[in-house]
Design a protein that fits this description.
This protein is an alpha/beta fold. The protein has two domains: about 260 residues, Carbamate kinase (3-Layer(aba) Sandwich), CATH 3.40.1160; about 100 residues, Archaeosine Trna-guanine Transglycosylase, Chain: A, domain 4, CATH 2.30.130.10. Helix content is about 35%, strand content about 20%. Helix 1 packs parallel to helix 9 and helix 6 runs parallel beside helix 8. The radius of gyration is 23 Å and the shape is globular. The termini are far apart. Belongs to the glutamate 5-kinase family. Pathway: Amino-acid biosynthesis; L-proline biosynthesis; L-glutamate 5-semialdehyde from L-glutamate: step 1/2. It is found in: Cytoplasm.
């Protein structure tokens, strides 16, 4: 008999990414099914009712599309067929979630280029954050319709880890049809024991998941641990649980996990602030007045009205330094990711946020640097 997982407390969280595997959304006939999705949707609703945000990364589009074409048409086509099936199934998969949730559901398709290109990365981030502000539930998937093999993000487990970092999540939840990580394959080794907590994903831990060709390899437990490793680097813990277990799903709403928790070495905020503080910058600088410097040091976003000058050239999304200008000279008070390019900031300097669109003909938002994309140097108060 396979040993079961003990209940443990989830870490505190305000925003989570929930990844749902395709096996949880399809029935034995391959058609979309809400059998397991209902419980997951109830968890999303309960989380939102308590003031938390949940972003879904949902598989199932290709499976949903497969049942819409004749059997003989599925035998050939390779990647092109997969792209067509994804296009056929996306609306059905999103429609399933909309039928289970009483709030607007928004589809967001991401590609490799969206996350590699800094400007498009920021666009995706801003869209997702705005959807959450509007109290919608984003449903994210890879844009399989246009992805080519060499530029695919890969499996949705790793996509979920990327999205978790993208939206500053505190927790990554991965639902599949297995209970969690075992010390060995539980169906093949009677001595396999459940691993309730993983401090770090080491080669020894990866070996427990099996090789790429095993039943728990590609698309299985190994990719989930790889995703947890990515999330941990962003300061995000990962919870692995069985989405077919109604009791395990229901316990999530009470802050309890029956599965495996992969810890993060530091908090999400600490990890992000550390990166902003130490990552290579663009060489660009924004000079600000004393009022803007105080606001930034107090945790506010940087608005265009407090900017008095721009040094150097940089693109949207580049890391720049914020310099407070005073009688004693200039001193660095913060670093952050700039929402606008250097030339655009020069045109906005000293102006009110309501003038942005009139000046530029477009707007990426009211802030030049969002407070979540900024780290202030407290020692600048000295």
């Amino acid at each position: 008999m396979v040993a079961t997982f003990d209940i443990q407390n989830l870490p505190p969280w305000r925003r989570a990414v929930l990844k749902i595997g395709s096996s949880l959304l399809t029935g034995v006939d391959g058609e979309l099914s809400d059998r397991h999705a209902r419980g997951l949707a109830a968890f999303v609703a309960a989380s939102r009712a308590s003031g938390r945000d949940v972003v879904l990364v949902s598989s199932g589009a290709v499976a949903a599309g497969r049942t819409r074409v004749p059997q003989d048409a599925r035998r050939a086509g390779g990647l092109v067929l997969r792209q067509a099936l994804a296009a056929l199934g996306q609306t059905r998969m999103v429609g399933l979630w909309q039928s289970l949730l009483d709030v607007p559901v928004a589809q967001v398709l991401l590609s490799h280029d969206d996350l590699r290109n800094r400007r498009r990365y920021l666009n995706a981030r801003n869209t997702l954050l705005e959807l959450l502000r509007l109290r919608c539930v984003p449903v994210v998937n890879e844009n399989d319709t246009v992805a080519v093999e060499e530029l695919k993000l890969g499996d949705n487990d790793n996509l979920a880890a990327i999205v978790a970092a993208l939206v500053d999540a505190d927790l990554l939840l991965i639902a599949s049809d297995v209970d969690g990580l075992y010390s060995a394959h539980p169906r093949l080794d009677p001595a396999a024991r459940p691993i309730g907590r993983v401090a770090a994903v080491t080669p020894e831990v990866l070996a427990m998941a099996g090789g790429a060709g095993s039943a728990l390899g590609t698309g299985g437990m190994r990719t989930k641990l790889e995703a947890a490793t990515k999330a941990a680097k962003a300061g995000i813990a990962t919870a692995l649980f069985n989405g077919t277990d109604a009791a395990a799903v229901a316990s999530l709403a009470d802050g309890q996990l029956r599965g495996t928790l992969v810890e993060a070495p530091a908090s999400r905020l600490a990890a992000r602030k550390y990166w902003l503080r130490h990552a290579p910058g663009s060489g660009g600088c924004l000079r600000v007045d004393a009022g803007a410097a105080r606001a930034v040091l107090d945790g506010a976003s940087l608005l265009p009205g407090g900017i008095v000058g721009v040094d150097g050239e940089f693109a949207r999304g580049d890391l720049v330094e914020v310099l407070a200008v005073g009688e004693a000279g200039a001193r660095v008070v913060a670093r952050g990711l700039c929402q606008y390019a250097a030339g655009e900031v020069r045109r906005l300097a000293g102006r009110h946020t309501r003038e942005i669109e009139a000046i530029l003909g477009f707007s990426y938002g009211d802030t030049v640097i969002r407070r979540d994309d900024l780290v202030a140097f407290e020692e600048a108060n000295a």
